[in-house]
Amino acid sequence: MLAALAKPVIGVAAARPTVLGARSFDRVGAGLRSAPRDALLASSVSKEHRGKAFGLEGFGDNLGAFLGPLLAVLLMTALAVEIRWIFCLGHEAVFVYGAVFAIVGAGALLVLVSAMLSVRTERMAAERFGVPSGSAEPGWRRRTSS
Q: Where are the domains positioned within the chain?
């Protein structure tokens, strides 16, 4: 969130200290985002596939950083939109569009993480009570505890 808030400040900064402060907030925000993302990625794959998973994540990150602006330029060229019209939309519209995409992304992340945690919880409970994973039928805990 800090990174998302700091980037527009860098664009409208009129002095070097403002750029330095906004850039510092941007890097702190990126640091706060990186550790949980790496932990989530490491816990979602087996040890022998972690290198591949981190490589794929880095590839996707760099590919998006390259293709996103390229796609924006191609769309602006194809639709004959001048760059000044983007800023004429008003800051409110840009922030609303950004917020919509952020909410959709956060919602998708919450759904995926909760699904992953429920699978992990089921697997751990199955191992603890000696029931093979995936074969737990509703109410098996009550029957095995008596």
A: 1-44, 47-81, 89-146
